[in-house]
Design goal:
Length: 594
C-alpha cells in the first residue's frame, strides 16, 4: 500500500500503522525504538503483520478517527452487509496492548484474520502455543498473547481464522506484549478500555485553546504530536517509523524513532500556544536531562529516555518499502556536528521561561556553558540541519542559529535578570550577524545562500524572519523568499535544497520530494509579509496532501503525487500548527527575538 494508506494508533509509548485493508504492518514493542514484531511495511507479510477484514481482502470503504481521538474506525460495505473494525491502543498501565473490535453494522459479513508475529524486525519466527484457548508467541526476550473468542488455527508459520459477524455483534481481539521471563499479564476488558481511551483523548483535546480557523487540522496535528510523545520521559520522537524512503526505490532511508533537539523550540511553542503546559513542561524537562553534561558533547538527537548511543546498522533481511534499500535502524547522524542545535536549545529554554514555565538555576548554568561553547565555535563549518553526508560547510542557517543562541542568552539577562557576560555575548552576536550578512548573502541575486560563497539556496533560510534575525520586510529577506519561490518550488511546494547529479550537497544519489515543513514555513513568512491571501492558498493546498485521516509524512513527491518519508512526521505537523496560527487572528508565535 501507499504510505498515505496507513493510519496511526498509539499509547504514548509506541505506535502501530494500520493499513486501509485492515492489516497492521508496523509495530515496535515495548517502545517506539524497540525491534518491530510486525515489519511487513519494510518487507512482506512473512516479516510480520496482523490482517483483519472481510474475506477476500479489500480496502475499507471508508475510515475515520472517532472525533477528537486516536481511535480508528474502518468500515467495509460488502454484498451481504457492513462491518466495522475499531482499532486502538489503550494508555498503558503495565504492558502494551493493541485492541481490535469487530462490529457488525448490518447484515452478516464473513471475516478473516491472519496473524504472523515476527520478532527482531521481522527476522525471528517465535514459538507459538495455545493456553486456555489463548495464543502465546515467544522468541528471545519477547512474548505476546492474543486473547479472543474467535479461535485461530496454525499453519505455514501463521495463525488464521474465518468467522461471521452479524448486525449488533461485537467480537474483541486483544494483543498484549510482555517480557518473556514474566508470567502471563492480566487480561484487559476491550470494551471498558475503549470507553476509557475515548474519554482520555476527548478530555485532552477539550483543553486545546486554538480558536482560529483550521481547528480540525490543528487538533489532528496536536493529537499526532501527543501520540509521538514517550509518556514516561516526555521525549517526542520525530516519527514512529524507520526507512520509509524519501526517494522511492532509493537509499535515502533513515531511522526517525528518536528525539531531535532541532524540533525543541517549534514543538514547545506549538504546545504552549495551544494550552498544553504539562506536555511542554515534560518536553522541557526531557531536554534538560538529555543535554546535561559537557557542551561539546551535545548531540542533535537522543533516545526517548535520553540515550546517546544510537549506532546505525542495516537489516539486510528486509527488502525495504517498495524496494527502497537499505533498511536502517539507528542513525549515524547522531555523531555529526550541527551548530544550529545550540540555538534551538537556548531558544527553547528562553521560550519556556518567557511562557511562565518555572525555571531553575541548574537550567541557567547549563545554558551558560552552551553559550560559552557557541562563543568559541560558531565560526566552524558543520554538517548543517539537513544532516548532509557530504563535506562540512559554513552553512548560513547554522550561523544564524548561533546568533539565535547568543541573542536568547542576552535576553535572559536583560529580561529576567540572569547573570552572565552580556556585553561579551553582544559583541559575539553582532560579529555573527555581520559575518552572515557579508559572507552568506549574494548581493548580485539579492538572496542569502545555503553556505558561504555557494550559489545554492536553502529553504531553511525562510526561518530568518521567524527567529528574528531580520525583519520580514527587509529587502534581503524579501529577495531570499522570492528566490526560494522561483528556484526551490516543485508543483507549488518547497524543496529543501537543490538535489541534482552535479551537486554534492548531501553526498547521496537520487532525488527527493518537497519537504513539507519548508512549505509551512513559507506560509508563515508570507503571512508575516502581509501576503495573507497567498499564504492561505498555499496552506489549503498543503492540507489537501494529508491522507484521509489527516496525517502527513515528511515529504510529498510531485513526480508520483505521493507522500514519501517517515510517517507520520512530527516535523510536518508542528509547522502546520504554527502556520494555522499565523493565518488566524491569534497573536504571532513567540519563537522570534521579541
Amino acid at each position: 500500500m501507499r504510505i498515505e494508506d496507513y493510519a496511526l494508533i498509539g499509547d504514548m509509548q509506541s505506535a502501530a500503522l494500520v493499513g486501509r485493508d485492515g492489516s497492521i504492518d508496523w509495530l515496535c514493542l515495548p517502545r517506539f525504538d524497540s525491534p518491530a514484531c510486525f515489519a511487513a511495511l519494510l518487507g512482506n507479510e512473512r516479516n510480520g503483520h496482523w490482517w483483519l477484514g472481510p474475506t477476500g481482502r479489500r480496502p475499507a470503504t471508508r475510515r475515520r478517527y472517532r472525533p477528537d481521538t486516536l481511535i480508528l474506525e474502518s468500515e467495509w460495505d460488502t454484498p451481504t452487509g457492513t462491518v466495522r473494525v475499531i482499532d486502538f491502543m489503550p494508555p498503558r498501565d503495565v504492558n502494551p496492548d493493541v485492541v481490535r473490535i469487530v462490529e457488525g453494522v448490518s447484515g452478516t459479513v464473513e471475516m478473516s484474520a491472519q496473524l504472523r508475529v515476527r520478532f527482531d524486525h521481522g527476522r525471528i519466527v517465535p514459538w507459538v502455543r495455545r493456553s486456555d484457548g489463548h495464543l502465546q508467541a515467544v522468541g528471545g526476550p519477547d512474548s505476546v498473547w492474543l486473547h479472543s473468542p474467535v479461535p485461530l488455527k496454525g499453519g505455514d508459520y501463521a495463525h488464521r481464522a474465518t468467522f461471521h459477524v452479524r448486525e449488533g455483534q461485537r467480537l474483541p481481539f486483544v494483543f498484549t506484549w510482555h517480557p518473556s521471563h514474566e508470567p502471563m499479564p492480566r487480561q484487559i476488558r476491550a470494551e471498558e478500555q475503549l470507553r476509557e481511551t475515548e474519554a482520555m483523548w476527548t478530555e485532552w483535546v477539550a483543553t486545546c485553546s486554538h480558536k482560529g480557523p483550521y481547528r480540525q487540522a490543528v487538533v489532528r496535528s496536536l493529537i499526532t504530536l501527543k501520540a509521538l510523545t514517550y509518556a514516561p520521559t516526555g521525549g517526542i520522537v520525530a516519527s514512529p517509523t524507520t526507512s520509509l524512503p524519501e526517494d522511492l526505490g532509493g537509499v535515502r532511508n533513515w531511522d526517525y524513532r528518536y528525539c531531535w533537539l532541532r524540533d525543541a523550540t517549534m514543538t514547545l511553542d506549538a504546545l504552549i500556544g495551544n494550552g498544553y503546559l504539562d506536555e511542554a513542561a515534560s518536553w522541557r524537562s526531557w531536554l534538560l536531562r538529555a543535554i546535561a553534561g559537557r557542551p561539546q558533547d551535545l548531540q542533535i538527537m537522543y533516545g526517548v529516555a535520553g540515550e546517546r548511543r544510537l549506532p546505525e546498522m542495516q537489516l539486510d533481511w528486509l527488502d525495504g518499502y517498495e524496494g527502497s534499500r537499505p533498511v536502517r535502524i539507528g542513525n549515524d547522524a547522531v555523531n555529526q556536528l550541527q551548530l544550529d542545535v545550540y540555538g534551538e536549545v537556548l531558544s527553547c529554554l528562553y521560550l519556556a521561561r518567557s511562557s511562565g514555565l518555572t525555571g531553575d538555576q541548574r537550567a541557567w548554568s547549563i545554558q551558560r556553558e552552551l553559550l560559552a561553547y557557541v562563543e568559541e565555535h560558531w565560526d566552524e563549518p558543520d554538517e548543517g540541519l539537513w544532516e548532509v553526508r557530504g563535506p562540512r560547510r559554513h552553512f548560513t542557517h547554522s550561523k544564524m542559529m548561533c546568533w539565535v543562541a547568543l541573542d536568547r542568552g542576552i535576553k535572559n539577562v536583560e529580561r529576567f535578570g540572569m547573570t552572565g557576560p552580556v556585553e561579551r555575548w553582544k559583541a559575539a552576536r553582532d560579529a555573527v550577524h555581520a559575518e552572515i550578512c557579508a559572507k552568506g548573502y549574494d548581493p548580485r541575486r539579492n538572496t542569502f545562500t545555503q553556505s558561504y560563497g555557494s550559489y545554492e539556496l536553502d529553504a531553511a533560510l525562510l526561518l530568518m524572519p521567524i527567529v528574528g534575525f531580520l525583519p520580514p520586510d527587509d529587502p534581503r529577506v524579501a529577495g531570499t523568499v522570492a528566490a526560494i519561490e522561483k528556484e526551490l518550488m516543485a508543483d507549488g511546494f518547497v524543496m529543501r535544497y537543490p538535489v541534482a547529479a552535479e551537486n554534492d550537497i548531501d553526498g547521496l544519489p537520487g532525488a527527493e520530494g518537497a519537504f513539507l515543513a519548508c512549505s509551512f514555513w513559507l506560509v508563515e513568512v508570507m503571512a508575516m509579509q502581509g501576503r495573507q491571501e497567498e499564504a492561505r492558498e498555499l496552506f489549503e493546498r498543503l492540507l489537501t496532501l494529508r491522507n484521509d485521516v489527516g496525517l502527513l509524512s515528511e515529504e510529498y513527491d510531485p513526480r508520483y503525487g505521493r507522500l514519501v518519508g517517515n510517517f507520520p512526521q512530527a516535523f510536518s505537523h508542528v509547522p502546520l500548527v504554527h502556520a494555522a496560527r499565523a493565518l488566524s487572528s491569534e497573536p504571532p508565535g513567540t519563537t522570534g527575538a521579541t
